[in-house]
Inverse folding.
C-alpha cells in the first residue's frame, strides 16, 4: 500500500509539473526580455564598441593631418658672439609664434583618411556581428536552462519510480519473497538513477549561472523561465543557393572584412606616399633680446620639402602594409568559404529537424495513449507501470523541446548569417 501511495504522489507531481510554476511575486524571464538585455553592458559588446570608438579616433587623427598647427617657441640662450660683428651682448633669448599649414602632400593624407574611414565602417559591421553572436549565445543559454529543468523533471520522476520499486522490494524482502541479490540489484539501479538526478540538479544551477553571466548579472541568476510558444515547422525557406547568395551579400562579418580589405589597400597607398613631398605654408612672428641680421619681426613663406632618402623605413612601411592587405584578403576568402558551409549546414539542419519533430509528435501521441491506459489500470488497482509511463512522457517532452530549440537556433543562425539582427522571435520568414 505504501508503494501505491508513493506512485500516486508521483502522478500528482507529474500533473502539477506539466508547466513551470512561477515563484510568488516573480515573473518568469521570457526570451524577449533576455534578448532585450543581451547586448546592453556585456563585456563582449563593450569590447567591440571600444574598438569602434578607437576607429573613430583614428579617423579623426587622419583628418587632422591637414589641420593648421600653431606653436609657441621660447628659447633661453647665452652666446659668445665673434668680435666686431653686430650686437656683442650675450643674451640671445627669443620668443616666437609659429604657424604651419600643410597644403598638399601628393595623396598621402587623402589615402590615410580613406583607410581610416573604411576601418571605421568595418568596426561598425564588426560591432553588429558581435551583437548578433552574443544574442545567439543568450538564446542558446536560455534554451539550455529550460532543457536542464526538463531533464531534472524526467530524472526526478525516474528516481521516484525506482525508489517505489526498491521500497516495495524491501517490504517483500522482509517477508522472504525477494532475495538479497534481487534487493541489491534494485538498490544499485536506484543509486545509478539517483546519480543522474544529482547531475541534472547541478546542471540546472550551471545553466542558470551561464545565462546570468551572458546577461551581465552574475549575482542574479534567473529562477523561472517562460517556455516559448511552439514553433511552426511548416514555414517555408528559400533554397540553399538563395540563402548563400543573401548571406554573401549581407553578412556583417563579411562586410567588415571587405571594408577592412579596402582599408588595407588604401593603407598601402598611404605607405608609398608617406615619405613623399610635402608643400606647406609657414608664418612666424618673434621678439628677440639680441638683434642680428636674420632676426625678423615676422616672416611668411611656402615650403616644399622633398625627402631624398628615407633609408629602409619606407620599404618597411610598404612591406608591412602589403602583408596586412594580403592577410585581410585571405581572411575574407576563408570567411566566405566558411559562410557557405555554415549556411548550408543550418539549412539542412532545418530539414532534419522537421522530420525529427514529426517523429517526436507521433511518439508523444503513443506515450499519451499508453499513459491513459496505465492510469486506468492504476485506478482499477491492477498492477501497472504508471510510473514508467509518466517518465516516458517526460522524456518525450524533453525530446520535443530539444528539437524545437534546435529549430529555433538554426533559424536564428540563418537570420544572423544573412545580416538580420536577432529579435525576440526569430520566426519571421527569411527572404532574399
Amino acid at each position: 500500500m505504501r508503494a501505491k501511495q508513493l506512485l500516486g504522489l508521483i502522478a500528482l507531481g507529474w500533473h502539477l509539473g506539466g508547466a513551470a510554476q512561477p515563484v510568488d511575486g516573480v515573473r518568469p524571464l521570457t526570451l524577449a526580455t533576455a534578448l532585450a538585455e543581451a547586448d546592453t553592458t556585456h563585456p563582449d559588446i563593450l569590447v567591440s564598441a571600444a574598438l569602434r570608438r578607437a576607429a573613430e579616433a583614428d579617423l579623426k587623427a587622419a583628418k587632422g593631418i591637414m589641420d593648421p598647427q600653431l606653436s609657441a617657441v621660447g628659447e633661453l640662450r647665452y652666446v659668445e658672439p665673434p668680435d666686431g660683428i653686430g650686437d656683442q651682448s650675450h643674451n640671445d633669448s627669443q620668443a616666437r609664434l609659429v604657424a604651419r599649414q600643410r597644403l598638399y602632400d601628393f595623396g598621402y593624407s587623402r589615402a590615410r583618411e580613406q583607410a581610416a574611414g573604411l576601418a571605421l565602417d568595418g568596426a561598425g559591421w564588426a560591432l553588429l556581428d558581435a551583437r548578433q553572436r552574443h544574442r545567439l549565445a543568450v538564446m542558446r543559454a536560455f534554451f539550455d536552462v529550460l532543457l536542464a529543468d526538463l531533464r531534472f523533471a524526467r530524472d526526478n520522476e525516474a528516481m521516484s519510480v525506482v525508489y517505489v520499486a526498491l521500497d516495495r522490494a524491501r517490504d517483500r524482502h522482509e517477508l522472504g519473497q525477494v532475495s538479497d541479490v534481487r534487493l541489491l540489484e534494485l538498490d544499485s539501479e536506484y543509486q545509478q538513477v539517483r546519480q543522474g538526478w544529482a547531475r541534472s540538479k547541478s546542471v540546472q544551477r550551471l545553466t542558470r549561472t551561464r545565462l546570468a553571466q551572458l546577461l551581465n548579472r552574475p549575482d542574479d541568476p534567473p529562477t523561472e523561465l517562460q517556455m516559448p510558444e511552439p514553433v511552426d515547422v511548416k514555414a517555408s525557406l528559400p533554397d540553399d543557393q538563395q540563402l548563400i547568395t543573401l548571406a554573401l551579400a549581407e553578412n556583417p562579418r563579411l562586410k567588415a572584412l571587405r571594408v577592412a580589405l579596402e582599408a588595407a589597400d588604401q593603407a598601402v597607398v598611404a605607405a608609398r606616399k608617406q615619405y613623399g613631398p610635402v608643400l606647406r605654408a609657414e608664418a612666424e612672428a618673434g621678439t628677440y633680446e639680441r638683434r642680428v641680421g636674420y632676426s625678423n619681426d615676422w616672416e611668411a613663406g611656402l615650403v616644399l620639402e622633398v625627402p631624398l632618402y628615407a633609408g629602409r623605413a619606407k620599404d618597411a612601411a610598404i612591406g608591412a602594409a602589403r602583408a596586412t592587405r594580403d592577410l585581410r584578403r585571405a581572411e575574407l576568402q576563408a570567411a566566405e568559404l566558411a559562410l557557405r558551409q555554415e549556411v548550408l549546414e543550418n539549412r539542412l539542419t532545418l530539414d532534419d529537424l522537421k522530420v525529427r519533430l514529426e517523429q517526436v509528435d507521433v511518439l508523444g501521441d503513443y506515450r499519451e495513449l499508453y499513459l491513459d491506459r496505465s492510469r486506468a489500470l492504476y485506478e482499477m488497482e491492477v498492477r501497472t507501470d504508471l510510473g514508467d509511463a509518466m517518465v516516458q512522457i517526460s522524456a518525450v517532452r524533453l525530446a520535443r523541446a530539444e528539437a524545437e530549440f534546435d529549430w529555433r537556433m538554426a533559424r536564428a543562425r540563418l537570420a544572423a548569417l544573412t545580416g538580420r539582427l536577432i529579435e525576440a522571435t526569430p520566426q519571421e520568414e527569411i527572404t532574399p
